[in-house]
Protein: UPF0125 protein DNJ96_03605
Organism: Stutzerimonas kirkiae
Amino acid sequence: MNVCVVYANARQPLALNCRVEDGCTVEQAIERSGLLSCCPEIDLRKQKVGVYGKFVKLDSPLKEGDRVEIYQRITRVLDDDDDEDDDD
């Protein structure tokens, strides 16, 4: 079956189409796509994954045509004036 694995890294978004066996899991599709060798910063133990915008587990089975998404970790850097107190 055919699936697409996507990742929006800092340089450019990547979308890799790959052919996988029926019953393939999200993790297997990511590995099969070759994306992990292209983007060594991906850490599947820390980053969330999904299928068409819905969070799923790495062992979730895929269906024909699914789009597997690897999400960036969200971080927020506070400015000096960006605090919880709004007394100013």
In short: Residues 2-70 form a domain with the Ubiquitin-like (UB roll) fold (CATH 3.10.20.30). The chain has one domain: 2-70.
